[in-house]
Amino acid sequence: MARMSDKPARWTRATVYADMWTDPDDDPRDNDGASPDGELETLRDFLANYRLTLLMKCEGLDAEQLARRSVPPSTMSLLGLVRHLAEVERDWHNWIRDGDPLPKLYGEGDGDFEGAVAEQAVVDAAYADLAREQAAIDATLAGHADLGERLGKDGIAVRELLVHRIDEYARHCGHADLLRECVDGRVGQ
Predict the structure, then answer these.
(1) Which of 25, 60, 101, 186 could form a disulfide with 94 if both were Cys (CB 3.0 to 4.6 A apart)?
(2) CA nearest 56: which of 35, 89, 80, 26?
C-alpha cells in the first residue's frame, strides 16, 4: 500500500535527460557557439549564466511558492534569494562607486529574507530591484576592462569582484535547486 506524503514527487521538464532542468536545445544558457574569448568575457558569461539560472529556478511559481520557507527553521526562500542577491549587488556597487553608499534595500540584518512574504507586489518589487541593481553595477564595470584595475576606496580588483559575484550566485543557485525541489519537486541542472 502506498503511503501519502506531503513531499512533492521529483520531476523535470526535460524529456531527453531526466536529471536536467530543461532539454539542452531549450536551455537559454547553453549555446552551441564558441566559448567566449578572453578572461573578462568568460567571467561575464559565467555570471550571466548563473543570474539566468536563478531566474529559471524561480519561474512558473506563484507568490506563495516563491516565499515558502522550504527548509525549516531557515528563513531562506526563493523570493528571499532574489531579494538577497539584489541587496548584495547593491553592496558590491557600493564598494566601487564614488560618494556615500546607497542605503540597504531591505533594512539591516536578515530583512531580505524576513521580508520575503507571499504578496505579488513584493515579488514584483524584488525582481525589479534585482534587475536595477544588476544593471547599475554592470554599467559601472563596463568602463573597466582591465581585470587588474583596482576600484573604490578599498581598491578591489575588477577580477576579484567578478569572481566574488560568480561565487555568490553559484552558491545561491545550489540553494535554489534544493528550495525548488521542496516547493514542487522540480529537479535538474
Answers:
(1) 101
(2) 26
Distances (CA, A) of 36 to 28, 43, 83: 16, 9, 29
Those residues with Cβ within 8 angstroms of residue 19's Cβ, 6 or more apart along the chain or in another chain: 12, 187, 188, 189
> What is the C-alpha to C-alpha distance for residues 11 and 5, in angstroms, rounded to an integer?
15
DSSP secondary structure letters along 20-71: SSS-GGG-TT--SSPPPSSHHHHHHHHHHHHHHHHHHHHTT--HHHHH---S
State residue 72's pLDDT score. 77
Neighbours of 170 (CB within 10 A): 15
Rounded distance between C-alpha atoms, residue 29 and residue 155, angstroms: 32
Amino acid at 172: H
d(CA 75, CA 110) in angstroms, rounded, equals 9
Predicted model pTM: 0.86
